[in-house]
Every structure is written in C-alpha cells, then in structure tokens.
C-alpha cells in the first residue's frame, strides 16, 4: 500500500495542498465559531422566566384622552369579546387569556422584627394554563384557606431593597429568603367584609409588574367582595404562540392592530434577530470558504488522476481494482478533511472564549456551551466532507478504470 501511495501521489502538488489546508482551516474555524455563537445566543434568549415562557407576550391597549374620559365616567376600556376572538384567529396564536383584576381593596403588610410596612396594593390573575411553575409547586387556593401562593415581580424586591429599605432603615432581604418573611394581605370589600391571608411567594418574574394569585381564588374573591356588580372587561391580555419563541410576524401584527406590548419582548426580539442574522452571515462566509477549499481539493485530485491515467490503467491491468486504487486518493482527502476541521475546532476553542466572555459580562447568569459545542460539529462536518470526497474520487477513478 505504501508503494502504491507513493506511485499514485507522485504528481501531487503538496504546496497547493498546504494552501488548500490553510484555507480550509480558516473556513472551518469561521463555521464552528458561528455555530457556537448561534447556540450560545439561543441559550441566552431561551432562558425562561421563573414562571412565564419565552413564547408568551402581554399586550394592552394604548391609553388616550378618550380612554381617560371613558374610565372617568365609570365606563370600561378593556378588550371586548370580538377583539379577543380576533386575537385567537391570528396565525401562530395557540392561546389567549385575559388578566383578572381585584375589584376590592387590598392592603399588604410586611413585618421584619419589630418593624412593619403596610401599603395599599393590587392583585391580578391569569388563567392557570399560562402559569408554568415547577412540578410539585401548589398553585391553587380557596377563600377559606389561610395561606395563598403569589408570584411577585423582581422589580418589587429591588424597589424595597434599594428604595424603601435604605431610606427607612429597614433591613434588606435576599429574594431567596423573602418567602420566609411574614407577608400578609388584608382584603376589604362591600358590606365592610374583611379577609386576611398569609402570602407564600412561589416564584419571581421579570416580565410582569403585577402580583399574581391563582385565577379561581381571585374570581371567587371578586364575587364576594367586589364593589361593582357588572363584570369587568380584561384590560390586559396574555398571548401564547405555538413555537418556543415569539415570531417577528406576530409582533408586527399586534402593532398593526394598535396594541402595545408590555416589557422588552419586542426589543429583545429585534436584538435576537440581529444577532441571528450576524451569526448566519458568519456561518455562510465560513461555509463558502470551506466549499471553495473542498472544490479546489477535488480539482487538484482530478488533475492528479488525469496525470496518472497511464499508471492507473497499468495498475488495473495488473489486477488492482477500482476500490483499491481509489483508496489512495480517498485517504489523502480524508486526511485533509480531518486536519482541516479538527484544526478549525481547536482554533475556535482557543479564541471563542473572548466572545463568550463578552456575553457573560453583559448577562452574568449566562453559561456558555461546553467543549462539545465545537468538536461535535467539527466531527460531523469532517465526516460529511470525507464521504463526499470519497464518492467523487471513486467516480473520477471509475472514469479511468472500467
């Protein structure tokens, strides 16, 4: 086999092969780095909220002077039944739910040591199917219970720690410990009825700025304590899509219908689309370089086969079959592919921490993908390119050896 390899590879231009290898390594490094960036960005934007998924969006109607006049006169400016049906018929929407607001007075009382804070608050709820809590977390309550589960915005904790606590001398509390601090709600409604509950914080959210309680509990409380006898239209809606993430088409449709999107979902989607576009462009450039290197290697092997046509024909007459003759050039191409993609993975592993470190500085909770995110694609792409080269070489030699 060694003699056969030396005979058939004699007309190979090793200087050109080295240039092809360098170009291939550069293209492979670009492709692998782009794939790593793509997966890390997916991980970054795929981080779930403590209870609400990345495929949910909360929408409201814009507040105008007409809205002010209507609500001041005792009217309602929420979502009508027809508007809710229109939302349900938007392509890609799998569920729509309205927020239910407490129609009675709510006072919250937080006590730490001998110090006590009491303020008027408001509660809301959404249908339970939109609340995604860990298994084993109880999300239900009745009016006869003494304790109710609640979901609290993270901004409330920050407001207490860096606003109220620092100005009044109250101790700051960690989010993981606040669930152990006595937090009570006092409900008061019609006929001077009062209900008192201890709140049990089960999750935090960064995408909503309201305190959530179980839907059935709040509706039952409204029936008993509400000052208004008329049913209230939801002023906010939560929309769920059929994909894991929101789509630009859905947000464009909501904007076109005149709705406002709460939070930074739209800004995040724009930034996510931009980053994905950059990653796609990087991967495309790398693939173009890799494919050019691939085609140049095929051209080089084709030239070598033509130069060795007489030798190949003589070897065929001596009893060497097409498979054995092809194996020489297939091993040459396989070596080129393995060196190219493994070297590209090595360089990507060395230089990519610069990019992942930048993401970590922006989002401290971000964790980059492991080393397999570089080496696994490299091995897969090396196998694909090797297989293609093997098939092409077999075809080229087959044109000489019938």
CA gyration radius, whole angstroms: 33 Å
Largest sheet: spatial strand order: 5-4-8-9-7
Give the end-to-end Cα distance, rounded to a whole number of Å: 21 Å
Helix content: 40-55%
Task: Give the percentage of residues in beta strands.
Answer: 15-25%
- Name the shape in a single word: elongated
SSE run: HHEHHEEEEEEHEEEHEHEHHHHH
Structural class: alpha+beta
The major β-sheet equals: 5 strands, mixed
In terms of per-residue confidence, which ranges show pLDDT below 50 for 5 or more consecutive residues?
Answer: none
Q: Average pLDDT across residues?
A: 75
How many helices? 12
How many extended strands?
Answer: 12
Please provide a written account of the structure.
The chain is α+β, with helices and mostly antiparallel strands. Helix content is 52%, strand content 16%. The chain contains 12 helices and 12 strands. The strands form 3 sheets. Strands 5-4-8-9-7 form a 5-stranded mixed beta sheet. Strands 2-11-1-12 form a 4-stranded antiparallel beta sheet, with helices on one face. It has a 3-stranded mixed beta sheet with strand order 3-6-10, with helices on one face. Helix 2 (14-45) packs antiparallel against helix 8 (265-307), helix 2 packs across helix 10 (322-351) and helix 10 (322-351) packs antiparallel against helix 12 (372-398). The longest helix has 43 residues, at 265-307. The chain is elongated. It starts with a helix and ends with a helix.
């Amino acid at each position: 086999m060694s003699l056969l390899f030396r005979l058939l590879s004699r007309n190979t231009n090793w200087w050109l092969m080295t240039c092809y290898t360098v170009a291939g390594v550069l293209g492979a490094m670009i492709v692998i780095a782009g794939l790593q960036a793509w997966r890390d960005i997916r991980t970054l934007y795929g981080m779930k909220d403590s209870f609400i998924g990345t495929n949910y969006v909360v929408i409201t109607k814009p507040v105008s002077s007409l809205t002010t006049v209507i609500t001041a006169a005792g009217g309602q400016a929420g979502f009508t039944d027809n508007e809710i049906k229109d939302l349900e018929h938007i392509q890609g929407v799998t569920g729509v739910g309205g927020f239910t607001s407490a129609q009675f007075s709510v006072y919250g009382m937080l006590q730490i040591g001998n110090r006590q804070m009491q303020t008027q608050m408001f509660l809301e709820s959404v249908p339970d199917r939109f609340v995604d809590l860990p298994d084993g977390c109880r999300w239900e309550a009745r009016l006869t219970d003494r304790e109710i589960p609640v979901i609290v915005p993270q901004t409330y904790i920050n407001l207490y720690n860096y606003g109220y606590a620092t100005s009044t001398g109250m101790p700051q509390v960690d989010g993981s410990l606040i669930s152990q601090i006595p937090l009570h709600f006092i409900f008061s409604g019609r006929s001077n009825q009062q209900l008192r509950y201890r709140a049990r914080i089960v999750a935090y959210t960064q995408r909503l700025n309201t305190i959530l309680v179980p839907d059935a509990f709040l509706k039952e409380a409204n029936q008993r304590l509400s000052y208004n006898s008329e049913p209230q239209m939801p002023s906010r809606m939560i929309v769920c899509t059929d994909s894991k993430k929101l789509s630009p088409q859905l947000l464009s449709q909501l904007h076109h219908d005149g709705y406002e999107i709460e939070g930074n979902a739209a800004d995040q989607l724009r930034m996510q689309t931009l980053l994905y576009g950059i990653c796609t462009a990087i991967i495309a450039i790398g693939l173009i370089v890799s494919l050019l290197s691939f085609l140049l290697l095929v051209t080089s092997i084709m030239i070598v086969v033509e130069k060795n046509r007489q030798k190949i024909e003589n070897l065929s007459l001596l009893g060497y079959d097409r498979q054995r003759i092809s194996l020489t050039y297939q091993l040459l191409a396989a070596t080129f592919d393995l060196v190219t993609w493994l070297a590209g993975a090595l360089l990507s592993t060395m230089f990519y921490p610069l990019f992942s470190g930048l993401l970590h500085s922006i989002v401290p909770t971000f964790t980059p993908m492991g080393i397999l995110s570089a080496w696994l694609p490299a091995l897969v792409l090396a196998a694909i390119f090797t297989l293609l080269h093997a098939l092409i070489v077999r075809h080229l030699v087959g044109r000489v050896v019938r």
